[in-house]
Specification:
Elements (H helix, E strand, L loop, with lengths): L43 H16 L8 H30 L1 H12 L1
């Protein structure tokens, strides 16, 4: 290539310049295999999915809200059961700390 400050410099003709072959990157974009006649009509797959989801929606029931007094009563009952379990456990530990309990535990471990 000739430098621009040479006396014999002649610019290349831009029309003769070989540009790379252009390819249309969108070629074949409009070609679809599965074209519907009515674009807004639902397909069979969508109908199946909709029917399945509606069946599932019918099966789910809302939980009934309990009254405040009922919830408080349940919490108190659960607390009482925990306290009872704790009391029983403490009684068992107390029995094991007596001389008779220690002897019984020793005999149980020897078997």
């Amino acid at each position: 290539m000739a430098d621009w400050d040479d006396e014999e410099f002649e610019p290349e003709d831009p029309t003769k310049a070989s540009a790379p072959a252009r390819t249309d990157k969108w070629e074949g974009e409009d070609e679809d295999d599965d074209i519907k006649d009515a674009w807004d009509a639902e397909s069979d797959d969508e109908k199946k999915e909709n029917s399945e989801s509606s069946e599932v929606g019918k099966a789910i029931q809302k939980k009934k809200k309990k009254k405040l007094a009922d919830r408080i009563a349940e919490k108190e009952e659960a607390r009482m059961q925990e306290l009872e379990a704790l009391r029983i456990q403490e009684e068992e530990e107390a029995k094991l700390n007596t001389p008779e309990g220690k002897l019984a535990e020793k005999l149980r471990l020897q078997k």
